[in-house]
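Try this one yourself first.
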């Protein structure tokens, strides 16, 4: 998981769709006190730049993680810290993360290749031709128009950059980049499966919202015999 501690140490977790607006939660602290609720959340608040944010334990005493759509940032705070003090420490850690480019992290080349392939493979088996036959009975990933693949790659890169915090938590839940591509394609095209039915709770809901915000992408065969997205 990518994060920055309060000492400014950058802990990089390699691994990246277009900029989409994020829903803002009601302003102000929603959970009082420095004890976790039933979901393990110490505080929920609306960050001026990051949008809806939550603070959870990092697994060790005095170590916490600020979870936002764009990044997960680890920070330290006294075990006796109040919810307000945790929020203040989290905001400072987030500012350091922004200064170090943490909220604009892309996937490395191998991860992006796996992400894009998973997305395209799913588009094939979930799509049908004019006769209602599955596209993967006739085509494979090599049949996509090269410019289409380039556009898809840029779009998926933008998705990860905008939602790196969500993506990292999705991967930490035991999923891989190929599954990320699969769930993204199914969810944005509302195929009846995807992020929302993976047992991910609020994370699945947030990823679903971000996928729907990008709109659907219908696959079709062009006059050149190659596959394109509408």
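Now uncover the answer:
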């Amino acid at each position: 998981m990518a994060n920055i501690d309060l000492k400014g140490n950058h802990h990089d977790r390699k691994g990246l769709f277009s900029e989409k607006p994020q829903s803002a939660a009601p302003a102000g602290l929603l959970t009082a006190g420095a004890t976790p609720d039933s979901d393990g959340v110490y505080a929920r608040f609306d960050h001026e730049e990051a949008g809806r944010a939550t603070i959870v334990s990092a697994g060790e005493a005095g170590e916490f993680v600020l979870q936002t759509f764009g990044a997960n940032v680890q920070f330290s705070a006294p075990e006796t810290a109040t919810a307000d003090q945790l929020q203040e420490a989290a905001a400072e850690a987030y500012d350091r993360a922004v200064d170090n480019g943490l909220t604009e992290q892309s996937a490395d080349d191998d991860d992006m290749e796996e992400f894009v392939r998973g997305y395209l493979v799913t588009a094939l088996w979930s799509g049908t031709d004019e006769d209602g036959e599955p596209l993967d009975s006739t085509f494979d990933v090599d049949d996509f128009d090269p410019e289409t693949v380039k556009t898809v790659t840029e779009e998926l890169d933008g998705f990860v950059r905008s939602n790196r915090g969500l993506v990292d938590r999705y991967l930490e839940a035991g999923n891989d980049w190929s599954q990320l591509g699969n769930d993204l394609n199914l969810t944005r095209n509302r195929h009846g499966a995807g992020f929302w039915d993976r047992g991910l709770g609020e994370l699945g809901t947030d990823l679903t919202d971000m996928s729907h915000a990008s709109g659907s992408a219908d696959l079709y065969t062009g006059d050149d015999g190659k596959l394109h997205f509408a």
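Discussion: The chain has two domains: 3-102, 109-229. The two ends are 34 Å apart (CA to CA).
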